[in-house]
Design a protein that fits this description.
The chain has 170 residues and is α+β, with helices and mostly antiparallel strands. It has 5 helices and 9 strands. Helices cover 24% and strands 26% of the residues. The strands form 2 sheets. Strands 3-4-5-9-8-7-6 form a 7-stranded antiparallel beta sheet.
Amino acid sequence: MRTRLALLAAVAATAFPSTALADDAPACLSAKGPASDGQSIRGVHVGGRAVIRGSDGNPLKVSSVRYCVDGGGIFSFALSTESDVVLALSTSDGDSIGPINPTSPAESARLVFPKMKRLARTSSTAVYRVDRRQLILGVAGGRVNFVAAADRLLLEYPNKLGYYLKRLGF
């Protein structure tokens, strides 16, 4: 009986890494990330190649990655079939484009970015390009829903932008 339990424990340890067996909640990203520039949110640049690895160190083929953020919200990014980052998006209050962050009133965004141009509309969110940079805002219910950086091709083709937004759950 003891050998069977030892064998079962060895198989469980191999199949489930210690982090999966831990009682602690998964670690989230810090509440405030690096400031956005014209092509990035939280330091993740659109157009860059992403290599996502599993706990064993082997590369994984994924279409999107999502992280929780301390204090609430999510940070996620979508990948092309070639593993290039095409959309980086955050709903965390700690991430912003200038003074505008998620939960800011839409009117404030219009005042700060008077040349905002509507690109697309998903089921409940209108998506706006804030200026000539690659930064976009999602607006729903009179408030900013998310801040994001998008690949230039997505900005030129709203249907593709909508496809990747749906992939991220918007």
